[in-house]
Amino acid sequence: MSNAKKVAVITGASQGIGNALVKSYLDRNYRVVATSRSIKPSADPDVLTIAGDIGDPGTGPQVIAKAMEHFGRVDTLVNNAGIFVASPFTKYTAEQYAQVISTNVNGFFFITQAAVEAMEQQGSGHIVSITTALVQHPLSQVPSVLASLSKGGIAAATRSLAIEYAARGIRVNAVAPGVIKTPMHAPETHDFLAALHPVGRMGEICDIVGAILYLEGAGFVTGETIHVDGGQQAGH
User: Fold this and answer.
1) For the chain, what are the domain ranges?
2) Which of 48, 77, 89, 102 has an alpha carbon 20 to 30 Å from 66's alpha carbon atom?
3) Fold classified for 7-225
4) Residue-wise pLDDT tens digits, 143-165
């Protein structure tokens, strides 16, 4: 297959923000490699779907290898997969800790490592990771140390990778959402969640997609975290 078109790899791609990103990158004339545990095969020749647990150390490298085999290149990686568990700190279980670290940290590390290796060979690439506004602005109403521990590490790694690879043509950025209206939030929680943001509403999926697409075209931006959080990180 011709490898003239750019290729975006998107994790957590079966629903919500990930699914919207697949459509948006296709609209930008990219080919897309979409992965999640439950993703279904696609009839679109510009979409390669790969089912797998991103927290498994073997999944990320396999996804990148298949992207290279099928499309011949990897231009963008969007680390969208993640899980969130709100709990008082002393009530977290060992199982919850393992689940969050597996998906959020392992899921970032192993696929990013493989993607950077592929991008180095091309001399260009872009990595965007989804973190959370809670890293910069914790909320007493939402105790969530595991989110800060895992996503805070990704925010720091984003800056470190941006500097390490700046001279090698690879940009690395992050988007830090507030609470976004996705299927994971039951409608009866929306009023409470909207009130957590100074603007008085939840974010929409298109708000996050728009930020990622901005970064995609912002060739002079690297090491940046864009807060898309209705003013949450600025204060209350």
Assistant:
1) 7-225
2) 102
3) Rossmann fold (3.40.50)
4) 999 999 999 999 999 999 999 99
